[in-house]
Design brief:
64% of the residues lie in helices and 5% in strands. By secondary structure, it is mainly alpha-helical. It has a two-stranded antiparallel ribbon. The longest helix is centred in the first third of the chain and has 46 residues. The chain is rod-shaped and about 185 Å long.
Length: 194
């Protein structure tokens, strides 16, 4: 019996030894799955490498375009305004506005001084030529241009002058004068005909 037991154990061992290389030669399901996963991952890696190379070339193109745009913007276009130009313009506008306010205050100050001195409504005009002699006449109540000219002509006649003052010469000496709208206190320049 011992022999039989030994013989069966020997046969079982031999059978086992023969089946192990057969199992090792035949790939298992796990090994096949691993190989399939490996092939799939390898194809995905190849796809990623191709996409990476495409993105790399696109990136280099975009980098070149950015360089060109920077070069164009670095060259100053005379029709564009820079921040410094706008700040200079704003400073000039503030200066002009400040001077305008000062002028306004000066004008108001002078007008108030004129009003205090009692010469409201006075318009002064200067004679047309400074080398010509003239008389300064302040318009009084109920005076007309013709009455003023007549009074000066009478004075000139009494002094022995032959030439007369004309309406045209008075209007030429006072270019802004409207004989119909003279105001009391308005100063007229009467040219001396001599």
């Amino acid at each position: 019996m011992k022999r039989l037991l030994l013989f069966t154990s020997f046969l079982a061992t031999v059978c086992l030894l023969e089946t192990i290389p057969a199992i090792a030669k035949e790939p298992s399901l796990d090994a096949r799955a691993i190989r399939e996963d490996y092939r799939r991952l390898q194809s995905q890696l190849e796809d990623l490498l191709m996409a990476h190379n495409a993105l790399k070339s696109e990136h280099s193109k975009l980098r070149g375009e950015v360089r060109l745009l920077r070069a164009k913007t670095a060259a100053k276009d005379p029709s564009t305004a820079t921040r410094a130009d706008l700040e200079g313009l704003a400073k000039s506008i503030r200066e002009v506005d400040r001077k305008r306010v000062q002028d306004k205050e000066l004008i108001l100050k002078e007008m108030k001084a004129l009003l205090r001195s009692g010469s409201s409504g006075v318009t002064t005009t200067k004679p047309s030529s400074s080398s010509q002699k003239s008389f300064e006449h302040t318009v009084q109540k109920n005076e007309t241009i013709s009455a003023i000219i007549a009074a000066y002509n009478t004075d000139l006649k009494s002094q022995g002058a032959k030439k007369r003052i004309t309406l045209k010469s008075v209007l030429d000496a006072n270019p802004k004068l409207n004989p119909r709208t003279m105001r009391i206190g308005q100063i007229l320049f009467i040219p001396d005909p001599r």
